[in-house]
Specification:
Chain lengths: ~250, ~260
């Protein structure tokens, strides 16, 4: 038998209670079980870092935020533009899509040192890594989205003698938006991953660098605070994407 | 009177010229301007294909076809053709009004005449007044088809091609839309080609009915409905003369299937 749906109050209250129960268990149960604080610090200890070292955290958040955001914009923009080119030229798509596909199979961790070799140690290589990691899912989704209009829809526009650019702006692009946004939502998390991976390999600034330093110095409360902050960054990016999506897609 | 459509020995198929599977073979058809032709036939007989050739969405393999005295391409480029699909093909992100206004937004470059924004008048005419700001998913199936017809009429086409437009609707809605369509046709003088699966609908709407058979598609029955109807293509659905004509069409359709 199917369960009755939860009331609106419960659908809000239950996740909060669930999270609270985990946090409580973490705070009180783990120390009781003898898990040392240098491996898993308590939530209050992590929260303490936010009070004690607030400026350190913000200073390291800033470069990661800029890299993730710039990588997100550049990677997705490049993917959208290439998708537009590909759907308008089957020859180009046939010639170059397999190469893009091959490029995508290279693990980002293997690619990152090369990118750092090329672009040096500043912010640029981190932006490039974040952009590369966003690029491929958006390219694939955007190509599918731009091609997702039905035969009847294309025939309708042909009967109206619509030009190629009218078909693009009035049919292909609006049809592609739902698929574009679903990949932008994924990219909001991967862009942050890209920036942090870049910082691991060569940087003394950013959340990635902070994670590495805190790990080597056994400052686990600082390590966990950096993790919380990077995940908050992803969530913030995700929420911005969802807000824009709600405005752009009303049906 | 000039003919709206003249097709001679028309061959249509898909695939290359040599290897093509013929969907229509040696089709001869004349449709008088301003008339209402119903096209009836089993699935796969090429009813929709015929409309697509007339609308310049598909090139014939052989034979000749002229539409309003010109090539289908010339007529389509001037936007003298309107097309209504079985699924309403409304753009889900546009409001009802903006869907009706689509012909104003695209393809204007190829127009020699100016079309006016009659969307308000057409929405009223199709019984959609007050629904202009709705989105398509907020409408019933019958309302969506009304929007599609309003959109096709906005450009004042001389030729209206309808591909099973009411096929997915319930019978009451379908009958109502049949009457509205006939009223529109009488007022506008547009030539209408109407593809349907329904014998009753074909007989009720058409001044003439053709029945197509499949493999390859060809005309197996041509029935002039005017002797069964009154002035202005008017009739009652339950009129014995119409019922008799329907039996005749059914026999032809059974032979064709």
């Amino acid at each position: 038998m199917r369960q009755a749906p939860l009331s609106p109050q419960m659908t809000i209250a239950l996740p909060v209670l669930g999270a609270a129960s985990i946090l409580l268990a973490w705070q009180y149960l783990l120390p009781l079980l003898g898990v040392p604080a240098y491996i898993v610090p308590t939530p209050t200890a992590i929260f303490g870092v936010f009070q004690k070292n607030f400026s350190l955290l913000v200073d390291n958040l800033r470069p990661t935020l800029i890299e993730a955001l710039a990588g997100f914009v550049i990677g997705n923009l490049a993917a959208v533009l290439l998708a537009v080119l590909f759907v308008h030229s089957r020859v180009l798509q046939a010639a170059y899509f397999p190469i893009v596909l091959f490029f995508n199979t290279i693990p980002i961790l293997a690619l990152s040192p090369i990118i750092i070799l090329i672009f040096g140690l500043g912010m640029t290589p981190k932006i490039v890594i974040a952009a590369v990691i966003c690029f491929f899912p958006t390219l694939v989704n955007m190509i599918r989205g731009l091609d997702s209009a039905s035969d009847n829809e294309h025939e309708l526009f042909r009967v109206l003698s619509a030009t190629r650019s009218e078909i693009f702006w009035s049919l292909r692009l609006p049809r592609a938006l739902p698929m574009l946004f679903s990949s932008l939502r994924i990219a909001s998390a991967t862009a942050v991953i890209g920036a942090i991976v870049g910082e691991w390999i060569g940087s003394d600034k950013g959340l990635g660098a902070l994670i590495i330093q805190a790990t080597f110095n056994y400052q686990s409360d600082r390590l966990y605070a950096a993790i919380v902050l990077s995940s908050s960054l992803s969530i913030a990016l995700f929420c911005i994407v969802v807000l824009i999506e709600r405005r752009a897609i009303r049906y | 009177m000039q003919n709206a459509i003249e097709a001679r020995q028309l061959d249509v198929g898909y695939g290359g010229r040599q290897t093509a599977v013929k969907v229509l073979a040696g089709l001869d058809l004349t449709v008088a301007a301003g008339s209402f032709l119903s096209i009836l036939g089993p699935s796969g007989c090429g009813k929709s294909t015929l409309l697509r050739v007339v609308a310049d969405l598909l090139d014939p393999l052989g034979g000749t076809i002229s539409v309003l005295g010109e090539t289908p391409h010339a007529v389509r480029s001037r936007r003298d053709v309107g097309f209504v699909f079985q699924d309403s093909t409304l753009l889900p992100w546009r409001t009802v009004r903006d869907n009706v206004r689509l012909p104003l937004g695209v393809g204007q470059g190829s127009l020699t005449r100016k079309i006016e924004d009659r969307s308000a008048e057409l929405l009223e005419l199709m019984g959609l007044g007050g629904l202009g700001e709705r989105l398509p998913h907020q409408l019933s199936g019958g309302q969506r088809q009304r929007v599609a017809i309003a959109r096709a009429l906005l450009g004042e086409p001389k030729l209206l091609l309808m591909d099973e437009p009411f096929g997915a609707l319930d019978e009451i809605t379908r009958d109502r839309l049949n009457d509205e369509l006939l009223a529109l046709w009488r007022r506008s003088g547009t030539t209408i080609l109407f593809v349907t699966h329904s014998i009753a609908e074909a007989a009720y709407l058409g001044e003439r009915v053709i029945v197509l058979a499949a493999n390859p598609g060809r005309i197996v029955k041509y029935l002039d409905m005017q002797p069964f109807k009154q002035e202005g293509n008017r009739c009652k659905r339950e009129d014995p003369a119409i019922i008799a004509a329907m039996a005749d069409l059914r026999a032809a359709l059974e032979r064709a299937s």
